[in-house]
């Protein structure tokens, strides 16, 4: 197995110029998104003839995966309403200059807020388009200052049996854990979301704060994060532990690598009748492909 050594901490090295260009690109992207024109050029070029209209709010908030509240798609909306999300503490640990137990408001204080309309695809081969509000994870990294040995970031999410009926079933090894390589975390597409459609994010979608990584399978988007840990070694993630042959660490959307039990060639966009072809990196290949140029995507799925 070829695993590329992660580059040295990119957050510390991002030049102002690179940030400036990112900002310009993203101002343009955001302006288009706000105007309801968030059609990716790559999808148009592939002749899908369909656009990426945001999925209706009631679908986004009633068709969910959040196994701590049950495994049916309707369970989270039904069972998560009582989750207490304020006050909320996030503990920052590991190789980082500013560790600590942060109240969520303090953690995010001073970070610019963004709105991004992203295609999201579940490994179960359905997808949505969601207008997220929140912050860029890279901005939080700059504030927390990971150390030079921080090659990965681990996200641990809430596991509270009193509030989460699904914890009775050992479908996953609770708590739910996700992880990113540090350069994936610092990528300008990666968000921590606190809202959807301009409203505070509902519990079923991962209140009060969840990860959003649009070029990866939805399972990378850990919900209701309580711990962020910077580490040198690759985190053991919940899905990888549950089924290593089905869910690799990388979880990049790749239509050429089938899930062992079903194809990943096409997907059902919720609200649409015809299936769509699945795009490499969920249509974000131009932006993120270079992160994986030294990685064999068949073995590092
Ligand atoms: N804590 C936690 N986070 C989670 C999950 C989960 O079961 N528990 N499911 C993941 C999966 S498989 C998907 S597809 C997305 C779904 O996010 P959504 O319901 O907001 O669309 O959340 C991800 N984050
Ligand atoms: Mo998923």
Could you walk me through the main structural features you see in this protein, from its secondary elements to its overall organization?
- The protein has 301 residues and is an alpha+beta fold.
- The chain has a single domain (11-292), classed as Oxidoreductase, molybdopterin-binding domain (Sulfite Oxidase, Chain A, domain 2).
- The protein contains 10 helices and 12 strands.
- It has helices spanning 10-13, 16-34, 41-45, 57-60, 75-79, 104-108, 137-144, 182-185, 238-242, 285-288; strands spanning 89-94, 100-103, 114-121, 126-136, 152-157, 177-181, 191-196, 199-200, 210-212, 225-231, 266-269, 276-277.
- The strands form 2 sheets. Strands 3, 4, 7, 8, 9, 11 and 12 form a 7-stranded mixed sheet that branches. A 5-stranded mixed sheet has the order 2-1-10-5-6.
- Strand 7 and strand 8 form a beta hairpin.
- The longest helix has 19 residues, at 16-34.
- Residues 65, 122-124, 217-219 line the site of molybdenum atom (MO).
CATH fold call: Sulfite Oxidase, Chain A, domain 2
- Share of helix, binned: 10-25%
* Gyration radius from CA atoms, angstroms: 18 Å
Task: Based on the coordinates given, report the CATH architecture.
Answer: Alpha-Beta Complex
- Mean pLDDT over the residues: 89
Please report the number of helical segments. Answer: 10
CATH first level: which class?
Answer: Alpha Beta
Shape: globular
- Helix/sheet category: alpha+beta
Overall tally of structural domains: 1
Distance between the termini: 11 Å
């Amino acid at each position: 197995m070829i695993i590329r050594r992660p580059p040295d901490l990119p957050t510390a090295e991002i030049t102002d110029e690179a940030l400036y260009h990112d900002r310009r690109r993203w101002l343009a992207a955001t302006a288009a998104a706000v105007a309801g024109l968030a059609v990716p050029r790559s999808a148009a070029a592939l002749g899908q003839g369909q656009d990426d209209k945001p999925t209706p709010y009631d679908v986004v908030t009633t068709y969910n995966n959040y196994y701590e509240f049950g495994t049916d798609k309707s369970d989270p909306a039904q069972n998560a309403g009582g989750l207490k999300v304020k006050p909320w503490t996030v503990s920052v640990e590991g190789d980082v200059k500013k560790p600590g137990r942060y109240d969520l408001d303090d953690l995010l204080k001073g970070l610019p807020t963004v709105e991004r309309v992203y295609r999201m695809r579940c490994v179960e081969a359905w997808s949505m388009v969601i207008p997220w509000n929140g912050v860029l994870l890279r901005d939080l990294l700059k504030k927390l200052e990971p150390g030079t040995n921080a090659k990965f970031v681990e996200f641990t999410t809430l596991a509270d049996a009193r509030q989460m009926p699904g914890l009775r079933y050992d479908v996953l090894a609770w708590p739910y854990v996700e992880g990113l390589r540090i350069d994936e975390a610092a990528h300008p597409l990666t968000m921590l979301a606190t809202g959807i459609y301009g409203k505070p994010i509902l519990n079923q979608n991962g209140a009060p704060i969840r990860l959003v990584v649009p070029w990866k399978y939805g399972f990378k988007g850990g919900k209701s994060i309580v711990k962020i840990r910077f580490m040198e070694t690759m985190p053991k993630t919940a899905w990888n532990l549950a089924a290593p042959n089905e869910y690799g660490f990388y979880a990049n959307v790749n239509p050429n690598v089938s899930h062992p039990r079903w194809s990943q060639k096409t997907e059902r966009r919720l609200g649409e009748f015809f299936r769509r072809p699945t795009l490499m990196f969920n249509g974000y290949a131009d932006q993120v492909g270079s992160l994986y140029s030294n990685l064999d995507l068949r073995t590092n799925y």
